[in-house]
Predict the 3D structure of the following.
Amino acid sequence: MHCPFCRHPDSRVIDSRTTDDGLSIRRRRQCPECGGRFSTVETASLNVIKRSGVIEPFSRDKVVSGVRKACQGRPVTDGDLALLAQRVEEILRRTGSSQIDTNEIGLAILDPLRELDEVAYLRFASVYQAFESLEDFESSIAQLRADHELRASAASEATTD
């Protein structure tokens, strides 16, 4: 990395620390030429392969903007959306792959969105999974109901133990 003060092409790392979220490393550097000190932040790259074949860096902002449309009129805050985007990125990073296609991102959004707001989930899923009929909606709603019943029975068993 070039020194931001004198543009010398080298620097020496004098301290490294993991950031609070554990997803990046903050390095304190010193230029051997001018002695200037500066910090850098390193993260593992995560790239998205779009349907057109174009590769671009992953963006939490794009996740938020895509999900925001499904959340219009719902009691979902910007903070909720930021947390959802963070969870999606964590899910994608756990795959161990540095390149993710857009379909995998959509799949990674579904579960956290369902936990956040079921109506927004149905809206997003209807577009993402290309619902074509009322039966598609009914099937998805039936799955949500079955999940509710499973959670309710599990909670009931946990309180009786």
Observations:
- The radius of gyration is 22 Å.
- The first strand starts at residue 12 and ends at 18.
